[in-house]
Write a structure and sequence with these properties.
The complex is a heterodimer of chains A (482) and B (271). By secondary structure, chain A is an all-alpha fold. Chain A has one domain. Helix content of chain A is 72%, strand content 1%. Chain A has a two-stranded antiparallel sheet. In chain A, a hairpin with a 2-residue loop joins strand 2 and strand 3. In chain A, helix 12 runs parallel beside helix 15. The longest helix of chain A is centred in the N-terminal third of the chain and has 44 residues. Chain A is globular, with a radius of gyration of 28 Å. By secondary structure, chain B is of the alpha/beta class. Chain B has a seven-stranded mixed beta sheet, sandwiched between helices. The longest helix of chain B has 17 residues. Classes of the chains: A mainly alpha (482), B alpha/beta (271). At the A-B interface, helix 1, helix 2, strand 1, helix 5 and helix 7 of A face helix 2, helix 3, strand 7, helix 5 and helix 7 of B. Strand 1 of chain A pairs antiparallel with strand 7 of chain B.
């Protein structure tokens, strides 16, 4: 045990003969002696008197007047947290949010994309006209600016719809009800019921979800919550999921049902994420982090009317702009890196293509391809730029397709690069399960102060992502689905 | 005090929101309270910051700091994570407890939910054990009214021995009265007689025997009485902190530069 070198003042030197206990130890011993001299029940007595005092004071101060007006809250709660309807209602709400996001984001995304492409063309033309060297034009406009354009047009519209809706739910007081509904599942997985809350925060941002685990008092259950937070898709990954769902799943359905189908598939992916959260929590609490789930009390706060000004501020400034800015900051260097890689000659083609080729066998095994893996490697600092990075590599290495709009995307991926339904599904799964972004990994380290747990938190999801996508790819191929 | 419409206008009360400017301050005020009672809402109203609030317990898990000026006195306001008790052990509650015990705020504002007063008073009574400089902000008065509850704030103040102010932090109602009370407490104009849960005579004797011993060994620790009570209770963590010298570190840390409000870690406000 460390002794008293950190005391504010040096401990009193033991002048007396014989080994006298250090002063701090003497205090603890004396306290123990005094404790045993107390009546056995004094501890309960202290707590009881505290409660009694609180009751007395409150009784004198509070008067119930007239009819209670909170019947409505209780009636809503009976519905929202009912064993039969609670979970279906939750899924319905989730699906509605995604549906609104997908339908609403479609048009502005396309409009923004074509705006950016127009600006890119025009500006690159200007550069060329004024005699700028080709590499400068390429680097600035087809590299950095294109990266920026992709990020803004793919991410901004869905976030600007998704975040306000999520914030309204949060302000209403729905999140604790979600935790209440999911509690029995987490308990069965040997995890803390409040993990449902930290999981919900993970939908916003996994790093924030990891910090939120501080509400869990048991270190064991806190670790479980930290290690599994990654399995819910954060907002950085939602645009990826939404894009894939829109381009691939929705395209399988008649236009009337398209956005409904896309929303449904995202709910499906979220459910897969929740299932993995529970499964991995269960596995951890039976192996590395053995133990029983601890009990806790969860307050269901009254429903409160969200204040619109604050919702707009929180969701648009704090969340949307913050995330967008972070994405831009990472997308700009990523765009530059890709442009450089794609313009360094290597063998028959360029460096980016060569790396992608080298990664191809691994990518193929898990139903993806080398370009996608390369994009994931470049996008480690921030998950939100995976799709733009991927598209830039595709466009930089293949035929130099100029995308006029998002509608051309599907053509590029399917016809140009042999994407199938399996590619889309596995990319969604991989995006859901793979390692957390750099910010989250750093946050895990800060919360656990352990390199080993941090490594586990980063590598375990990656291994699971490879395993799952390998299994789905193999199954699909064996069954002859692709 | 006049109760006209200006009551709800913070500007009228010569409040100046100072945002993140907390480098120079005259007094430190801590915001404590049960989870989801509106501490962060009050924090935002006073500092003009936009610490993210949300309608669920556990929203704030770190300490956030902001500044405001009232009657030319600069205050540093510390928003603490919600806690039900000073005795519990989850990390966010520990952050709150450590600051209240060892950060030595000039005034602690305990925000309570008017519609669940009895449960909230447990924490108030525990805070009164460790400091005299307390103002009770009886928040969510509107929700209490909706539930058909009438809270007699005067009776509350009399029973607790510290000022109690009825408020609706969301609309700013009661803000200036709260500031008056904080000003009065920190300037010494208001004297308090906090209600203390006394315990049995043996218990009191035991506490008063331990307090000087603790003071001798750890003079920098501001709350020897609380330490004594915890030791008598056999709190292993406090014993450990005393034996290992962490207690002193803890005190030092509360005075050091605190985690400030920043947007560093994504969305949820404070890190």
């Amino acid at each position: 045990m460390e002794t008293s070198q950190t005391w504010p003042l040096p401990a009193v030197p033991s002048a007396g003969p014989g080994p006298e206990p250090a002063p701090a130890e003497a205090i603890v011993q004396r306290a123990a002696a005094l404790r045993s001299a107390q009546a056995a029940s004094f501890r309960d007595e202290a707590v009881r008197s505290l409660y009694a005092e609180a009751e007395t004071v409150a009784r004198r101060a509070v008067r119930r007047s007239g009819a209670a007006g909170h019947d409505l809250d209780q009636r809503i709660d009976r519905l929202v947290t009912s064993p039969a309807l609670g979970l279906p209602l939750m899924l319905l709400i989730l699906a509605t949010i995604f549906w609104l996001t997908i339908t609403g984001a479609n048009y502005p995304s396309a409009a923004l994309a074509s705006l950016f492409f127009t600006v890119e063309d025009y500006a690159a033309g200007l550069f060329t006209r004024f005699g700028a060297p080709w590499w400068l034009t390429g680097f600035v406009w087809h590299g950095v600016f294109r990266g920026l354009g992709w990020v803004v047009s793919v991410m901004l519209p869905p976030m600007a719809i998704f975040f306000p809706l999520f914030t309204i739910l949060e302000d209403l007081g729905y999140l604790p009800r979600v935790a209440f509904n999911l509690d029995f599942l987490f308990r069965r997985a040997g995890a803390h019921g409040k993990q449902a809350l930290t999981m919900a925060m993970g939908f916003g941002c996994n790093a924030a979800g990891v910090i939120a685990t501080r509400v869990i008092d048991s270190p064991r259950e806190k670790l479980i919550a930290i290690l599994t937070n990654n399995f819910v898709p954060c907002n950085g990954r939602f645009p990826t999921l939404i894009m894939l769902a829109t381009l691939f799943v929705a395209a399988q359905f008649p236009p009337v049902f398209a956005s409904l189908a896309a929303a449904g598939s995202i709910v499906g992916i979220v459910l897969v994420g929740v299932a993995f959260t529970l499964l991995v929590s269960w596995a951890l609490s039976r192996t590395l982090l053995k133990g029983e789930a601890s009990a806790f009390t969860l307050e269901l706060p009254p429903y409160r009317r969200p204040s619109m000004g604050r919702i707009v501020y929180t969701s648009l400034i704090d969340r949307t702009m913050f995330v967008l800015w972070r994405a831009v900051l990472t997308a700009v260097p990523a765009g530059a890196v890709i442009w450089i890689l794609a313009n360094i000659p290597w063998g028959d083609g360029n460096l980016a293509w060569a790396i992608a080729q080298a990664l191809n066998p691994l990518g193929h095994a898990i139903g993806l391809d080398g370009v996608i893996l390369l994009a994931y490697i470049i996008a480690i600092p921030a998950n939100e730029i995976v799709v733009p990075t991927m598209l830039m590599v595709y466009m930089g290495v293949g035929v130099m397709t100029e995308l006029e709009s998002l509608a051309d995307l599907r053509t590029l991926l399917v016809d140009g690069h042999g994407w199938t339904m399996l590619t889309a599904v596995n990319l969604m799964l991989f995006s859901l399960l793979h390692n957390p972004c750099a910010t989250t990994i750093i946050t895990i380290y800060k919360e656990t102060l352990s390199a080993r747990w941090t490594a586990l938190g980063a590598l375990m999801p990656l291994a699971i992502a490879f395993l799952v996508t390998f299994l789905t790819a193999t199954t699909a191929r064996v069954l002859g689905l692709v | 005090m006049n109760h006209d419409a200006c009551e709800t206008c913070p500007a009228h009360a010569s409040l100046e929101q100072m945002g993140l400017k907390v480098d120079r301050f005259d007094r430190v005020v801590a915001l404590a309270g049960n989870p989801n009672t509106g501490k962060s809402t009050l924090f935002n109203a006073l500092t003009g910051l936009r610490q993210h609030t949300g309608n669920w317990p556990g929203k704030t898990v770190t300490r956030a700091e902001g500044g405001f000026e009232f009657r030319s006195v600069r205050y540093k306001l510390v928003d603490l994570p919600g806690s039900y008790s000073l005795l519990s052990a989850s990390q966010d509650e520990e952050i709150a407890r450590d600051f209240l015990l060892f950060g030595q705020p000039d005034c602690t504002v305990v925000v309570v939910d008017a519609s669940a007063l009895e449960r909230n008073l447990n924490l108030v009574l525990q805070v009164l054990e460790i400091t005299d400089a307390v103002v009770v902000a009886v928040n969510l008065m509107d929700e209490a009214r909706r539930k058909g509850l009438e809270v007699d704030v005067r009776s509350l103040a009399r029973d607790l021995g510290v000022p109690a102010v009825p408020m609706v932090a969301r609309t700013g109602e009661g803000l200036s009265a709260l500031l008056e009370a904080v000003d009065g407490i920190t300037s010494g104009a208001i004297a308090t007689r906090p209600r203390r849960v006394e315990g049995t005579p043996e218990f009191r004797r035991a506490v008063s025997e331990l307090v000087p011993m603790i003071e001798a060994v750890a003079p920098a620790v501001p709350n020897p009485r609380w330490i004594a009570i915890r030791l008598l209770d056999g709190d292993a963590r406090v014993e450990q902190a005393l034996l290992s010298g962490q207690l002193a570190d803890l005190v030092a840390r509360q005075r050091g530069p605190a985690a400030r409000f920043s947007r560093k870690i994504a969305l949820e406000g404070a890190q």
